């Protein structure tokens, strides 16, 4: 059973986060190991395993990036732990520009501007990803996921810079 089936939701990039959370809590209550405290060792073990699967599925589906990776995995494109380098010269140039920009961040104004620009680019890429997944443009979607992964790394680097500036 895949993660979407577990939550009885369509295998789609666009999910209602509140509905996902509600279904997660409901399933968590029915599967929780404490409900099987008086059961056999096998029942207890099965409850722990089901709860672990439920938690993994929820963590995967609640994040748009990991949800997209999972959708692509269901479609036969494995991105987890890959080392593929994008062959997009325009994006490679943008990566270099972002690296230079991050090196130059030295105050909260430049940090805030970088955050704002990064968030905008991430929103644009996520919108692009949604369209690609909806139209089964899987190879393009995989490349967009790779780009978003890079953008998430940049976001983490900006968070670290913010900590240093504080």
Automatic annotation (TrEMBL):
Keyword Chaperone among UniProt keywords: yes
GO BP, one annotated term: protein complex oligomerization
GO cellular component terms given for this protein: iron-sulfur cluster transfer complex
SMART domains: DnaJ
Organism superkingdom: Bacteria
Keywords per UniProt: Chaperone, Coiled coil
Coiled coil: 108-135
PROSITE patterns (UniProt xref): DNAJ_2
Domain called J: residue spans: 2-74
UniProt GO molecular function: ATPase activator activity; protein-folding chaperone binding
Signal peptide: none
CDD domains membership: DnaJ (cd06257)
Function summary: Co-chaperone involved in the maturation of iron-sulfur cluster-containing proteins. Seems to help targeting proteins to be folded toward HscA.
NCBIfam families: hscB, PRK05014.1
Subunit annotation: Interacts with HscA and stimulates its ATPase activity.
Family to which this protein belongs: Belongs to the HscB family.
Full protein name: Co-chaperone protein HscB homolog
Taxon lineage: Bacteria, Pseudomonadati, Pseudomonadota, Gammaproteobacteria, Alteromonadales
């Amino acid at each position: 059973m895949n993660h979407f089936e577990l939550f009885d939701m369509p295998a789609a990039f666009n999910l209602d986060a509140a509905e996902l959370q509600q279904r997660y809590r409901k399933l968590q209550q029915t599967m929780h190991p404490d409900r099987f405290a008086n059961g056999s060792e096998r029942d207890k073990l099965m409850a722990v395993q089901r709860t672990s699967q439920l938690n993994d599925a929820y963590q995967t589906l609640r994040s748009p990036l990991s949800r997209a990776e999972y959708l692509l995995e269901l479609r036969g494109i494995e991105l987890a732990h890959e080392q593929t380098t994008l062959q997009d010269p325009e994006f490679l140039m943008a990566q270099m520009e972002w690296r230079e920009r991050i090196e130059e961040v030295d105050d909260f104004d430049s940090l805030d501007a970088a955050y704002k620009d990064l968030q905008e680019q991430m929103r644009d890429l996520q919108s692009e990803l949604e369209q690609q997944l909806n139209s089964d443009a899987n190879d393009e979607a995989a490349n967009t996921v790779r780009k978003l992964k890079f953008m998430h790394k940049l976001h983490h680097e900006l968070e670290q810079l913010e900590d240093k500036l504080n």
